[in-house]
Backbone:
């Protein structure tokens, strides 16, 4: 059985919606926001790709959102947009499953909960923040708001969260446990993350993300959510294509697919700690590109790579490496917009300690 | 589609009930339990709510002084070694194999080191050990690295049903042929964060918990880990290792109702049980017993009792949380291991803390060790977010 993407909902620093994302990929430029980070040297201005969820009010009443945190709002917006994109907003949801991937979970609510009792009295602990801080709060809020009564799963595997979650979504469809799955990824920025990021990686003013400069630390933090409505039904409803394989390893192994038959969207996001692994595994004949400078660095950003891949399949054209990025001559990099001449796109993410994830997608030949 | 069953060939457990699964089962049938005030953290609540701490002395000696692995991770590794040994496997025999890891947790997924965060809030530069520990203690990745495994890796964070789901997912990996063996289970440590969280929700009992009892006031928190070795028939057949049990069915559904409270009619739980029964091909009257979620909170126990009375009438059930506390992400795995061990004995322990039947509950648990008939048993979990997850195990002898 094959698994098809029927709709995509996306929100990130670049804006909201799959067509906005498509334009961002085509133009190769995205928006960053300014923020202030607490560092050991004092407050410091930095930039990050931050998401705005105000368009969620087009789908959900304000009072429903009153107690919902930013993390859940991003996920809920992604879910609504995916259903809308698939023309499935009004469909029955009793045989719909939810699978959410997140590297860090509901960070802001986690620390808001700590704020409620640190330095004061444990009796002041906030039940609202505690409820929202649980990792599966986003999936729960999607389930409650959309009335999804099928199975609901949240997975956290840091950089490997997305391929790990996708494995379960595919198994559910294969088992016919559900008819469709809302598979999504969500991660959010928070002050503590900015602080830790600064101390672990430093920050250089005015430097843009340069994902193919594997030995340089150029990553910029991001946040966002992207959801896919997955189904085992192909045909006219699947303009984006299908998922044909998912692999994840945590201990150093890496089974590279046939490099001649695929384009590789790299999850390289300016983290030099594992940049060298791309350099080690990439070969000259591999056709590669990376879009992370358009949405930033965060654990579940591989789902954004996947969305970019699906758009390429839909458009039958590859988006170029974002503007201003270095193009090492040793690799066959997609520098300009070009027709998609191969049948498959592999989203490849390599991370620390030998972790690797590959999601292979292809056009659905039956969709015309 | 015909799918080959996933067998359980080994189990390990460490929690407030004991150092090993054998110790835990002995404690359950002896009716002994030892809740006490938390020893690793203090709180400013006026009342010291009892918890069930895992015996740190039972953690593998080589792990004790390692600072970059969380207690949650150490509990997982300890239980996994026991499970592998119980399955007749030594660590060198699994190294480099395409063996999956699927682990449930809650605390193990969150960077909530209070000391680190407090120093950050005060403008300091706290040491990054806490961050490194968090980044290196993802339970599934930790076990994959500990044993050098190359199969799929997944940490499930479905709150209190995490490890019930992890076992169900692991079984599906075996059944679909994604891998021939999976280490599946759950792990969680006690934390002042969850301690305060559950107290803030006013669902914590200030005395030892009393699941399904008329006077129940809430849960006690616990900690621990349980690991199960799931294997395909081809794998255990080649090793000439008899299964202890078979995972016959897994059902999961959402209430779509409330972030922290179960659906009052138990609709989601009903669907999850029905799905698991349907997949396993079992009829309700073929179930020997149920290991309930049985937290001791008024809402949870009311919903479970109602669903048992309607869907599984007359089937004996037990809550083992009176012996372990609520171990959150580890609970489903610990209770799955207990369920299999009880199925092997054809006997279930009494529900610790259950003394006075609640006239509002249509079904009540066993209060003393009770012989059970049948070759199948249910272990189930209900979770924040409205997740309901149900596993059906079959006796490995049949």
Residues:
């Amino acid at each position: 059985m094959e698994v098809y993407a029927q709709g995509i909902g996306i929100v990130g620093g670049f804006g909201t919606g799959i067509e906005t994302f498509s334009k961002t990929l085509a133009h190769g430029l995205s928006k960053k926001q300014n923020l202030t980070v607490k560092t050991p040297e004092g407050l410091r201005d930095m930039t990050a790709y931050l998401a705005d969820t105000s368009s969620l009010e087009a789908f959900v009443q304000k009072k429903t959102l009153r107690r919902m945190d930013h993390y859940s709002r991003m996920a809920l917006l992604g879910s609504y947009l995916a259903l809308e994109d698939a023309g499935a907003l009004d469909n029955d949801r009793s045989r719909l499953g939810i699978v959410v991937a997140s590297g860090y979970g509901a960070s802001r609510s986690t620390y808001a909960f700590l704020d409620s009792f640190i330095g004061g009295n444990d009796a002041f602990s906030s039940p609202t923040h505690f409820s929202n801080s649980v990792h599966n709060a986003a999936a729960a809020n999607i389930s409650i708001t959309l009335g999804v009564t099928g199975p609901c799963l949240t997975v956290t595997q840091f950089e490997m969260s997305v391929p790990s979650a996708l494995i379960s979504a595919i198994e559910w469809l294969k088992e016919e446990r559900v008819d469709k799955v809302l598979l999504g990824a969500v991660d959010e920025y928070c002050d503590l993350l900015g602080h830790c990021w600064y101390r672990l990686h430093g920050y250089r003013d005015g430097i843009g993300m340069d994902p193919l400069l594997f030995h340089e630390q150029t990553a910029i933090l991001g946040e966002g959510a992207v959801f896919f409505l997955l189904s085992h039904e192909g045909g006219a409803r699947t303009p984006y294509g299908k998922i044909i394989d998912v692999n994840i390893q945590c201990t150093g192994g890496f089974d590279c697919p046939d490099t001649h038959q695929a384009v590789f969207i790299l999850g390289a996001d300016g983290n030099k700690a594992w940049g060298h692994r791309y350099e080690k595994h990439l070969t000259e004949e591999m056709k590669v590109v990376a879009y992370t400078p358009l949405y930033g660095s965060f654990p579940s950003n591989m789902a954004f790579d996947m969305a970019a891949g699906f758009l390429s399949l839909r458009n039958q054209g590859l988006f170029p490496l974002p503007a201003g990025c270095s193009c090492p001559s040793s690799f066959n990099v997609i520098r300009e917009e070009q027709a998609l001449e191969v049948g498959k796109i592999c989203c490849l993410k390599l991370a620390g300690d030998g972790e690797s994830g590959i999601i292979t997608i292809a056009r659905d030949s039956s969709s015309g | 589609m015909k799918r080959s069953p996933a067998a359980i060939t080994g189990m390990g457990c460490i929690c407030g009930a004991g150092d090993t699964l054998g110790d835990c089962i002995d404690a359950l049938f002896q009716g002994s339990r030892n809740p006490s005030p938390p020893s690793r953290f203090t709180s400013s609540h006026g009342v010291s709510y009892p918890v069930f701490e895992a015996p740190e002395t039972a953690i593998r000696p080589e792990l004790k002084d390692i600072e970059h692995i969380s207690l949650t991770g150490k509990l997982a590794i300890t239980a996994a070694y026991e499970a592998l040994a119980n399955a007749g496997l030594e660590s060198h025999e699994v190294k480099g194999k395409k063996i999956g890891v699927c682990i449930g947790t809650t605390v193990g997924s969150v960077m909530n080191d209070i000391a680190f965060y407090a120093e950050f809030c005060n403008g300091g530069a706290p040491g990054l050990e806490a961050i490194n520990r968090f980044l290196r203690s993802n339970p599934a990745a930790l076990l994959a690295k500990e044993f050098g495994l190359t199969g799929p890796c997944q940490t499930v964070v479905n709150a209190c049903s995490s490890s019930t789901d992890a076992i169900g997912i692991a079984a599906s990996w075996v059944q679909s042929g994604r891998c021939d063996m999976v280490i599946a289970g759950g792990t969680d440590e006690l934390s002042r964060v969850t301690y305060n969280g559950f107290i803030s929700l006013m669902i914590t009992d200030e005395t030892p918990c009393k699941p399904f009892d008329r006077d129940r006031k809430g849960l006690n928190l616990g900690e621990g880990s349980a690991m199960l070795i799931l294997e395909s028939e081809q794998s255990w057949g080649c090793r000439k290792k008899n299964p202890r049990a078979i995972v016959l069915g897994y059902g999961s559904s959402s209430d779509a109702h409330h972030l922290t409270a179960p659906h009052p009619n138990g609709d989601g739980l009903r669907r999850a049980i029905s799905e698991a029964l349907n997949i396993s091909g079992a009829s309700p009257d073929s179930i020997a017993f149920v290991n309930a979620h049985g937290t001791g909170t008024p809402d949870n126990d009311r919903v479970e009792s109602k669903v048992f009375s309607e869907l599984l009438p007359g089937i004996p059930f037990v809550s083992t949380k009176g012996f372990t506390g609520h171990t959150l992400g580890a609970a489903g795995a610990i209770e799955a291991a207990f369920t299999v061990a009880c199925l092997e004995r054809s006997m279930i322990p009494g529900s610790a803390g259950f003394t006075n039947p609640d006239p509002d509950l249509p079904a009540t648990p066993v209060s003393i060790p009770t012989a059970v008939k049948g070759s199948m048993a249910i272990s189930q979990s209900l979770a924040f977010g409205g997740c309901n997850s149900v596993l059906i195990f079959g006796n490995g002898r049949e």
